[in-house]
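Hi R.,

As promised on Friday, here is the backbone we talked about, encoded as structure tokens. Could you run it through your design pipeline when you get a chance and send me back a sequence?
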């Protein structure tokens, strides 16, 4: 009788979550159909020629962001982190906390993107909001823009490696369901990773016409996967946990960290999963009405991901066996797959669950690959990469869509090179995950901080608005969360660590900063242009009719570069 009541309670919770998701979907249609507010919108445009095909819609942007976050896969592959650091309580409440904080960050970034729609995203905004000089540091805005731009690229690349390589591991772990002694060799995992990169390269080069549909399908696939897994788990599971008991009482951290610190470290799972919203502005040149579409897409993606995560977590927790079974028995199988196996009592059903999750690997990999190539293209367009004239080249796919083909190839090269490092130690992949979150947190936090320093004056008249008093509060909490992520991801998931299980995120971040600094003095200082603002906009005064500001030591003799940077106001109408 208790099991029946528990099952009914869980089913009721699932129905409520589904109703929440339907409300979010209705909000999408309402946002698309709603007219602009009565206030006059003053959108600042950039002095770039429109070269990429502008085809993506709000649903596509939403799908792209949701696919990168890949909620069921992100939660499944990193579930061991909260389980070791507080169990079910950390897993569920950590998701709620990070969802709210991520929503505040997207709101802060959405305000900026609604005023300054640009492919450069965070590094262009850092240039616009930062002071031109600080004490003896001249052209400070170029320096900050350079660092933020490279943090964005490194964050995207390491996120790509993390998603694809953990996806390859997850795919191979299917064989561990039937044979718990199975443990794939590192070389085999690398081969699957290489195949995944090759598929992403092919889709981005040859199937651009289908990207919009792929992004749309990603949302439905993700939600359907969660619902199918939930329903079948509730039908096949023989025993259910008391959810109230699990969510109120935190387990003693098996990681060895104190309770409060363990909870914060447990947030690593949710923080990694929710990353992706700050990358979306890199698609601005390919989105219709970007000043409205990009902010809405970022905010809605958090709402959809948050609702999907709740729907996914509750039934999983209801069917979760004891931690001793999950963490101490059958170590070669991931916790989520063991939950599937124990709860469903069926290898066939477990295979179905894992195959559904593998579909999210496909969509997430394509999404992160696409955005990474666009961030590289944008930085090259501002002469921020050596041999920029190669990487900002625009070609065409078989359907004559304009795409940054060389940037797409360069992305594949970097992903393959970085993926090969995982052969040295499994902890390198974990460091890549931490580096991706930390790098993206820095790149998101800098423009928000500079916007506050400027009194949020340069946000006036944007297409996506927050009332001033709430704006300061939202911005402040957003900056706090970005800084907190730097601390959280510096800790290993267990207090008793070795050189093999150590978290090297702090070291990789230090190496990243040194490399970016060396590249600045050897190349960027004399070549990096920063964003090209429309001549009718003055960065400092925000008044019309001012002349365009640019670094005096830039060499403008490259005809190719001049052609790429001609203004084309019609493209922004």
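Update: got your reply. Pasting your designed sequence below so it's all in one thread:
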């Amino acid at each position: 009788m208790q099991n029946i009541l528990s099952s009914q309670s869980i089913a009721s919770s699932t129905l409520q979550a589904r109703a929440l998701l339907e409300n979010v979907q209705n909000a999408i249609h309402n946002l698309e159909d709603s007219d602009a507010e009565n206030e006059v919108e003053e959108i600042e445009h950039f002095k770039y020629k429109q070269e990429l095909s502008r085809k993506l819609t709000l649903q596509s942007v939403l799908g792209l962001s949701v696919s990168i976050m890949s909620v069921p896969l992100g939660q499944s592959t990193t579930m061991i982190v909260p389980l070791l650091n507080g169990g079910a309580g950390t897993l569920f409440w950590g998701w709620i906390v990070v969802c709210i904080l991520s929503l505040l960050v997207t709101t802060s970034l959405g305000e900026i993107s609604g005023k300054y729609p640009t492919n450069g995203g965070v590094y262009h905004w850092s240039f616009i909001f930062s002071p031109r000089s600080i004490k003896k540091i001249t052209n400070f805005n170029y320096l900050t823009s350079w660092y933020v731009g490279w943090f964005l690229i490194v964050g995207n690349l390491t996120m790509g490696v993390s998603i694809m390589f953990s996806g390859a591991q997850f795919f191979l772990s299917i064989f561990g369901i039937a044979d718990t002694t199975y443990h794939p060799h590192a070389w085999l995992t690398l081969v699957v990773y290489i195949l995944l990169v090759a598929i992403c390269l092919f889709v981005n080069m040859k199937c651009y016409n289908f990207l919009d549909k792929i992004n749309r399908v990603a949302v439905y696939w993700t939600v359907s996967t969660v619902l199918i897994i939930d329903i079948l788990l509730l039908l096949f599971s023989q025993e259910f946990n008391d959810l109230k008991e699990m969510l109120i009482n935190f387990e003693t951290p098996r990681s060895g960290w104190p309770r409060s610190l363990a909870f914060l470290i447990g947030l690593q799972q949710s923080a990694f999963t929710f990353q992706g919203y700050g990358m979306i502005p890199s698609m601005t040149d390919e989105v219709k009405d970007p000043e409205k579409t990009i902010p809405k897409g970022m905010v809605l993606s958090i709402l959809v991901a948050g609702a999907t995560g709740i729907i996914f977590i509750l039934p999983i927790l209801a069917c979760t066996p004891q931690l001793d079974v999950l963490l101490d028995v059958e170590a070669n199988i991931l916790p989520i797959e063991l939950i599937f196996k124990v709860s469903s009592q069926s290898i066939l059903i477990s295979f179905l669950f894992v195959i559904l999750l593998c579909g999210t690997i496909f969509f997430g990999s394509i999404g992160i690959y696409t955005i990474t190539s666009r961030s590289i293209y944008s930085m090259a367009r501002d002469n921020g990469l050596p041999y920029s004239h190669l990487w900002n080249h625009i070609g065409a796919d078989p359907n004559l869509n304009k795409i940054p083909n060389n940037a797409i190839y360069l992305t594949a090269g970097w992903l393959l090179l970085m993926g090969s490092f995982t052969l040295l130690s499994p902890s390198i992949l974990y460091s890549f995950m931490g580096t991706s979150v930390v790098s993206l947190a820095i790149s998101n936090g800098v423009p928000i901080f500079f916007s506050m320093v400027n009194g949020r004056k340069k946000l006036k008249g944007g297409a996506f608005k927050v009332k001033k008093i709430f704006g300061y509060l939202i911005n402040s909490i957003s900056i706090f969360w970005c800084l907190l992520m730097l601390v959280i991801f510096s800790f290993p998931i267990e207090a008793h660590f070795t050189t093999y299980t150590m978290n090297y995120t702090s070291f990789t971040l230090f190496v990243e900063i040194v490399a970016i600094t060396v590249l600045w003095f050897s190349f960027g200082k004399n070549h990096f242009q920063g964003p090209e603002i429309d001549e009718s906009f003055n960065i400092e005064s925000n008044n019309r009719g001012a002349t365009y500001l640019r670094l005096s030591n830039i060499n403008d003799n490259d005809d190719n570069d001049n052609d790429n940077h001609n203004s084309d106001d019609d493209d922004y109408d």
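One thing I noticed while checking it: Residues 1-7, 27-40, 537-573 have pLDDT under 50 and may be disordered.

Thanks again,
M.
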